[in-house]
Fold this sequence. Notes:
- By secondary structure, this protein is α/β, with parallel strands linked by helices.
- It has helices at 6-28, 57-71, 86-97, 114-121, 142-154, 173-176, 195-207, 215-223, 229-241, 254-257, 266-280, 286-293, 297-307, and strands at 42-45, 75-79, 102-107, 130-135, 161-165, 179-184, 212-213, 246-247.
- Strands 1-3-4-5-2-6 form a 6-stranded mixed beta sheet, with helices on one face. It has a two-stranded parallel ribbon with strand order 7-8.
- The longest helix has 23 residues, at 6-28.
- The radius of gyration is 24 Å and the shape is elongated.
- It starts with 5 loop residues before the first helix and ends in a 9-residue tail after the last helix.
- The model is unreliable at 31-39 and 47-51 (pLDDT under 50).
Amino acid sequence: WSRTSSDLLLTLARSAASTISLSMSARSTGRRERPTSRRSLFRIEHGSTGTGVRLGAEWSRLEADAHSAMAAGSTVAVIGRPGSGRSSLLTHAARRAFPRHRILSAAAPTPDDVDTWLDLWTYEADRTDTVVVLRDVDTLSDFAAQSLVDLLRSAETRMPLAVTAERLDDIPVALASVVASVVSLPPLSDRPEDVVPLAHEFARAVRGRDVRITPAAERVLQQHDWPHGAAELREVVTRVASTADIVDVALLPAELLAGRTRRLSSIEAFEHGEIVRVLASGTLTMSQAARQLGMSRATLYRKMAYYRIDPRNPGS
């Protein structure tokens, strides 16, 4: 990056120096410094972004739609819940449409960072080798959106642009006016066929090799709602795979074992999880499992009926 974007790198350095200066000033006067954003505002990707993971038919179809639109020169908006994989879909589509380009993945700034954020764009607007994926534009102010659109329009070349948002109606007017194609991406909970391939990919990233996920654990992962999307799945799998060679039901958090039947209380979720853990071993009789759980055999059967646990498939 330093060889091709020295001006941009200089601006980033100045921004960092300003932040450090303000922090030192605040500390010297005894004031509490303003917390900085942990989001990665700009991320540059060169070369292939593919990881080899093959997702389901729905993902492939939507990625193909985004690729076709981008290849035709249209500005694409991917709409969906945060964590559903919106920017990943656009990044893969952009890599197919513009295989020799670099991909600039940019997040919307906080209100205090808008001026610095817009300054960074002045060094990017005239590049001919870049595709821009602008994330979470529904959090972008009207002023910032209009300023960015004006800047891109005044550039000598038209930079390929794609954006993500939760709802189409929330995209600022200036950016909505340039969107020509919309792709609606369902949440991960509606794409259970993608959960297991992603889990294997996240586990591989932790261990540097393939990690076995048992069939029972795969069923539990597929049946969870994943309200926070792929980031939540990554956190769970990373935590387990970093401590074990095999991802099994016994290592998964209790809240995952409750399934989708209904919302359980914390105590119920724990109890449900313990029953599933014991039964999933497949080596105990019902009497032995009941003793290990500290309850009678009749109580165990009653609890299994209450939680709708299938003794032949406890993790389902």
